[in-house]
Amino acid sequence: RGHLRKEDFQAVRELSMNPVGDRIIGSFFSPGQETVDFPSFVQVLAHFRHTENDRIRDGAEKEPANSTARRLKFVFQLYDQDRDGKISRAELLQVLREMLGMQVTEEQLQSIAERAIQEANQEANQDKDDAISFDAFRKSMEKVNIDHKMSIRFLE
């Protein structure tokens, strides 16, 4: 009582049908953790809160979880499953398989992953690498309206 289990999240239709739903669910839990309490649940959920551009913040306030920077870090960590600070080719391929499933061939997946890694590193002016650093990820996401794509409006 007072705690949520992974099974509770999996019972939510929108999460169970989402191709990366297991990754989203996993973001609520620390490694080895079987349940999540309410404060921890709200802390992760805050990443999806609609951004209020006109909100005034004083300099001492901690950056909110729904800031663009914190959202990008959250999404990056959904990909970076081993938490080594970069999205490896294998991690990217796993996400692509989860999202695209049987719609594309393994050869097409490899090609998509190769191109994504090259483009991200090129935009960040980084040396050729077989992974995407957070800096390269952040730069490649500059044209994406992450605030809109990651917002859930509650009780409006």
TrEMBL record:
A GO MF label: calcium ion binding
Annotated transmembrane regions: none
Entry GO terms, CC: cytoplasm; nucleus; plasma membrane
Subcellular location: Cell membrane; Cytoplasm; Nucleus
Ranges for domain EF-hand: 67-102
UniProt cross-references to InterPro entries, sorted A to Z: Calcineurin_B_homologous, EF-hand-dom_pair, EF_Hand_1_Ca_BS, EF_hand_dom
PANTHER family: EG:114D9.1 PROTEIN-RELATED
Protein name (database record): Calcineurin-like EF hand protein 2
Gene (name only): CHP2
